[in-house]
Amino acid sequence: MQNPNPGNSDISNNSNMAILAGVVAAGAAYFLERIIGFLIFDRFYETYGDSYGFIIADAFFRTGLIEEAVRYLALTSVAKDAGNSRRDSIRTALLVGTGFWLAETILYVGVFGLHALAKRFFPAWGVHMALSVFAGCALSAELRKKKTAFLFAAVALHGLYDTVASLPEAGILTPLAAVCLIATAVITATQRDS
User: Fold this and answer.
1) How many alpha carbons lie under 13 Å from residue 97 in its C-beta half-sphere?
2) Can you give the pTM of this predicted structure?
């Protein structure tokens, strides 16, 4: 029997591929973060590990830069056309972000146990969705002139969030930072280009 809505199967296949790309990206980011950590950051951890400077450098360069670069590469690999509308680009980016968050959460539970799920579920999901909005905006044709600014914003906001989340005294600041990041992404996604 013929599919009465052939376009729906394309959407479903594209959605599955975007989520899978996010899963693969999370695995690649995890691997790259471990290599960079071993080659650079682990050597300084014994001396500087508790310093704010080390926490900030680790959050921005090892985590923010690597994860956002790999997520954007995954997004570009599944985006059919670089001329996508902002809406289509953000939708695809959110699917990639979902796969990324899912795989990263499974990795965290595997490494740290089930209690990591409680700490990571809401904030990490929201942050990955919010950061995906910036990647989607960078990919869209209407915002191509601002591509570098969107990618820089994603790395900077990811680094800022991870800095807050890494502070021993963060407490309620971590979910609060997640909410602020989500609000920023919503405003960015709905703002008219001027």
Assistant:
1) 21
2) 0.83
